[in-house]
Design a protein that fits this description.
116 residues; alpha+beta; YefM-like fold; 3-stranded mixed sheet; 18% strand; elongated
Length: 116
């Protein structure tokens, strides 16, 4: 099990922020997603290509999610975020302290039972 430190796109996080627990370390950008069918995607490729520069485009086939089209910048961010996943025992002390300081939302308290 590892700790994933994923700042929002373009967000800089200092060690000071992590130590003081002023930074929510488990944040993921919640980008809006445009959804379309494969047939509509083929007809309006240029339009969806432009939309993909601003937000991911989900392409469905027979009603099921099939493909995601996204900008090269968004893809680069995702691959960089995936590389920032570490084993907990290898985490820097500042990250371990930030996790120790973190508080879970009350509505997620039922998840504590899963850890027993």
């Amino acid at each position: 099990m590892g700790v994933k430190l994923v700042p929002a796109v373009g967000q800089q996080v200092s060690d000071r922020d992590l130590i003081s627990c002023n930074y929510p370390i488990f944040t993921y950008p919640e980008a809006p997603v445009t959804r379309t069918t494969a047939m509509e995607f083929r007809r309006k490729f240029g339009e969806f290509q432009n939309k993909a520069q601003r937000e991911p485009v989900e392409i469905t086939c027979y009603g099921r999610r099939d493909l995601m089209l996204m900008s090269a910048e968004h893809y680069d961010w995702l691959t960089a975020a995936a590389r920032r996943t570490y084993r907990t025992e290898d985490a820097a002390s500042v990250a371990i302290e930030a996790v120790r300081c973190a508080e879970m939302d009350a509505e997620m308290a039922h998840l504590d039972e899963l850890m027993k």
